[in-house]
Amino acid sequence: QVQLVESGGGLVQPGGSLRLSCAFSGSIFALSNMGWYRQAPGKQRELVAHISSGLITDYADSVKDRFTISRDNAKSTVYLQMDSLKPEDTAVYYCKTEGVLRADYGMEYWGKGTLVTVSS
User: Fold this and answer.
1) Torsion angle, CA of 86/49/19/42, rounded to 10 degrees?
2) Helices first, then strands: H and E counts in the chain
3) Tens-digit pLDDT profile for residues 1-26
4) DSSP letter assigned to residue 101
5) Which of 14, 16, 35, 41 has the smallest CB count inside 10 Å?
6) Nearest-CA neighbor of 47 among 65, 71, 25, 64?
7) Long-range contacts of 71-74 (CB under 8 A, 24+ apart)
8) What is the mean pLDDT of each run of 10 residues along the chain (120 residues)?
9) Which of 38, 54, 15, 53 is nearest to 95 (CA)?
10) Beta-bridge partners for 91
11) What distance, in Å, lies between the first and last C-alpha atoms of the chain?
């Protein structure tokens, strides 16, 4: 069973930076595509960034050139470096993946989220 644990959220001033981490366990991380999503109060959850097992990355237009997704297969961890943060980046940030084994292929797994608040 895949488990995802996010960390690194907190309160930051506009223009500041944070780095989120998502620790993965329970399956083969190197084969897993990983995504960061966020949900602001009163809004739907949205994709922020995605990185494939082959290191192909994709970003929401709203975070391009400000956020960077990366992964460390040796540590089974995916990161989201967030720079030039804006108040509208305030949200709970979630890590997501899909199963890659025969028993759970395509099944979605979510972390519990970490809160990012951008405010002066």
Assistant:
1) 50
2) 0, 11
3) 899 999 999 999 999 999 999 999 99
4) S
5) 41
6) 64
7) 71/29, 71/34, 73/29, 73/30
8) 97 98 96 98 96 97 97 98 98 96 94 98
9) 38
10) 116
11) 40
